[in-house]
Amino acid sequence: MPSRRFSARRALALALALGTCLGPIPAHAPAVAQGIAGHPDWPGRGQLFVGTCYQPIDRTPAQIREDIQVMKRAGFTMVRMGDLSWDSFEPQEGQFTFAWFDDVLAQMHAAGIRVIVDIPGLPAPLWLHKHYPGADIVTQQGVRLHPATRYQVNITDPDYRRLIRRLAVAMMQRYAHNPAVIAFGYDNEVGSSPMSYSAGDRERFVAWLQRRYGSIAALNAAWATQRWSRRINDWSEVDLPYGEGPGPNERNIDLRRYWSDATIAALVDLDDVRKRYAPNLPAASNLWPNAPAKGFDWSRAWDRISTYGAEGFYPSDPLGAAFEVMMIKAGHETPVWFNEFTAGGGGDYGQPGRSRMWAYFGLLYYAQSFLAWTFNSHLGGEEQSLFGLIDHDNRPSWKVGEFARFAGEFKTLQRMGFPRYAPPQVAIAYSSQSDWLTSPPPGPNTMKQYFKANYADQVKAAFAPFFADNIDAAVIDIGHDPISAYKLVVVPADYMMDQASAEAIRRYVAAGGTVVMTGYSAKADESGKWFDTPLPGRLSDVFGLRTSQFYRAETPLAFTLNGTALTGTDPYYEVLELDTATPLARFDNTPDHSAAITVNRYGKGRAIYLATAAQADLIGPLVRSLYGPLGIAAGPVTPPGVVARTVEGRTLYVNTQNKAATVSLSHPSKDALTSKQIAGELRLNPFDTALLETDAL
After folding, report:
1. What is the mean pLDDT of residues 348-370?
2. Vertex 147, ends 377 and 52: CA angle to 5°?
3. pTM of whole model > 0.90?
4. Beta-galactosidase trimerisation domain: which residues (predicted)?
5. Up-side HSE of residue 410: CA atoms within 13 Å toward CB?
6. 166-278-112 Cα angle (round to 5)
7. Are 465 and 488 spatial neighbours (Cβ–Cβ below 8 Å)?
8. How many CB atoms lie within 10 A of CB 231?
């Protein structure tokens, strides 16, 4: 048990946790990024970084010296250190040891390697759990868990929050002006820390509800408690909803919002420390906001907690990889940092050429730094079969040479317009809250009987045509980020249409913008309940129609658009009752041949509705028909499996496949990396790349 001498501090920390620290995130907070304006010394144009994640706590002093020489010979320019190491900085409460880290930083600086210093809030050390059991996770069954695995810590516990802030102050005071340090990161993979159900968690959740709703009457209305005799008479009757189910949508969405706000508040607290003690350095953190354990609403908070969007980049397929990167980029004007970058992995030794290919792929999608996870293969712990750049016997693997190769190549590319800064022309609306609502926990719930599709897959389906056409498309929350600069906004399956998102669409279309929205959209309000107004809720007049009726066809949906016959893969369709909207296409095989696509003039713009689920085979031809009228510049033409962008007159091609590909060329060209002359067609070997400039240039 903790000693009584800390009780006053705990009381103060509890008051903070129940007050503004866990206050709800404003629904439409202005998105003003912590960009590089006013900080010309922060990483920017013409700077690319290749390196690794490094845990010196695993290495002896002699190994550290040799490791750094390996990095230097490979041309590495950045490492990330400090994560996962709280008890190495503070082995006992209040006893800090920094000399070991100072020495490693000095060696990195001497080797010309810059360092991201992670504030290692996760996992918490064992002494913290033993002294402050409020940091332990309590399951929804009421079982207290000791920290048997990583990240198993309650990040809302006031003592945890107080102690990680104290560590952050100590580290930032010490390293803010260290010449090796280039940025700070916070709480590695914080989105993966689980929900907890202690008495203290319930108190904090109730306080959050009181701030959100203000009265029991408002809470009862939001939660539809008249159903199933669940009326709440006073705040003492409120229980924590079960994150693992069962429970209705209205309670589940508020539980997810609460934990999201709590996570964001913990990160904002650390960024406040940075602003006070290290305002000269930016923030770039590996946070994992879409982690399955809990996650948080990154799309509505990125501007409060980061300077550079950063992630652990472990791609499986190119479309999914591009989508995830653009989601992490969000509304940042700055590039993306791969604070962890694929170099093999758990049970995967690696495949020659694959990491280099994904690095070039990252360049196409705004990436600036590429830090291999991890440097040395792990001998023990939960990642003992995770393979890094250095083999278990300390011999550098072939992967060191591969990283050295593209590290050298990137020194040339950073003089040719990389990292990329060109803003996307198109925005894809993504809502964490629609995702949460349409993915309810197990239990009696008719949600999935209606919303049978996967929300994230539908958003990817809307993203897919632009990916295939090599056109940049932002993935943003349109209720948070400005959309006026985009030539087209696509809103796929946005089930929960809150006031901020609806008003953003209304303003954008009225001012002359074009929006494409798909079926399943605007069915529920902020509480998670269906609208009691004409659907699509809050936007029926903008789209000029009503969408209440829906059915599922017995045969694949089909219609003709601009003379081309199209067939879908999802049988869901809505019967559109048209008011001011006019049909652009009608279904061939629905009973009344109802409208498949409609357009409505609203103000100076157009609101287009696709009366089925977002699916690439249908939405692709629709958005492509808009490229010309909207002035959307098409990207380079490539065969499937090859992605490309044109940067400063040169076109970078990346073959993402483990087989050869051929690209047809309209002009003779030269590969700027190899000086090879190419005419007629470009043959790309498996995982190969080429940077072509025409002879005219």
Report:
1. 97
2. 25
3. yes
4. 425-631
5. 32
6. 115
7. no
8. 12
